[in-house]
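Troubleshooting log. The previous run stalled partway through. Resubmitting the same four chains, unchanged.
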Amino acid sequence: MSTLKYAILGLLSKKSMTGYELTKEFNTSVCEFWNARHSQIYPELHQLTEENLVKYEVEITGTCLEKKLYSLTEEGHEALMKWLKKPLRMAHTPKDEFRLQLFFSHNLSPEERVHMLEFQLIQHQARLQFLQNYQEKYDSIPPANTDQFSEYMVLLYGIMREETSCEWLKKCICMCRAE
Amino acid sequence: MSTLKYAILGLLSKKSMTGYELTKEFNTSVCEFWNARHSQIYPELHQLTEENLVKYEVEITGTCLEKKLYSLTEEGHEALMKWLKKPLRMAHTPKDEFRLQLFFSHNLSPEERVHMLEFQLIQHQARLQFLQNYQEKYDSIPPANTDQFSEYMVLLYGIMREETSCEWLKKCICMCRAE
DNA sequence: GGCTACATGTAAGCGGTTACATGATTTA
DNA sequence: TAAATCATGTAACCGCTTACATGTAGCC
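Second attempt completed without errors. Output:
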């Protein structure tokens, strides 16, 4: 079963949602480490329904607009728990077009190379700022048994990763300028 | 044009190679930030030939085994340079199944959660060790205009990223045990 | 009345993986 | 002579993106 299905089960374990709301979730909180478009989510929900891992109730908004409120079945909850307990092999290093460029960058002039590093740096600095702002919403580390604690750990990684990226880019700029 | 095509052009700019050798390259040095299987590489080489970005010469090994030695055309070199100079938007945070698990990990027992963090930690420590061993081959930072320098920068990122991952995992284990 | 957000779907195509398929060369 | 490596290809399938397609509800 695809990871996306577990992501959907996980989100539905927190709160019953429509496909539309799931799509929004994938574009906000979860998007730091997973994402999906509605064109992928609706078919997956159909499949999960067939597999009896989720069920839905039709609600009417206004006079006739139907929306499907999805929730986990007992079976769905079990499938989620089983996946959560599965030890994962470390993921293969993800593809990275910028580092591919950099790998061939000796074909560029020193100025061009420094320029491309600086362009990445300002973007990662902005991303770091965004994540740090998000972190300020926590005035302390949440208790370990809450979903806020899980969120906090994941956010922490994002911040540390961006700090490292900025540090690395600055180091590279420095080394390029040294000669 | 897909990134894989530029990766192939980049590798061929260093050295003329067969599809088989390109495949090996994608499983060693370059695999830290890009990879591809032979089933994808051979069709891409056919397309690049049609687009007149690469050309090949047939060589005979032994008595009859034909191999195609690919190299860049003038046009191919220009395409590579054009791509190298293209400023890249920061890549979207890559998908990460482990962090997805962790995001839903408040459903686990404290012991189970610590266990999954420790399992990741030993894997990242091994990867860090591997990259550090690789780094020892450089006894100093190579001159900035060489391809070794490009390699060195990319390797440095790998090491810093793994260091950060280990640091983060240790911090998480600590926080999980604190309560 | 018009705009934005809510809400749900399908189709075509791309990049990539896994598996199928074949055969020559080198080395132990 | 058997196994590992060199060498080149194709087919089916999967996950995902982009685009197509439709209609309602709420707000200004």
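Takeaways: Residues 2-4, 36-37, 39-40, 61-66 of chain B lie near DNA strand C (CB under 10 Å from a C1'). The beta strands of chain B are 54-61, 65-72.
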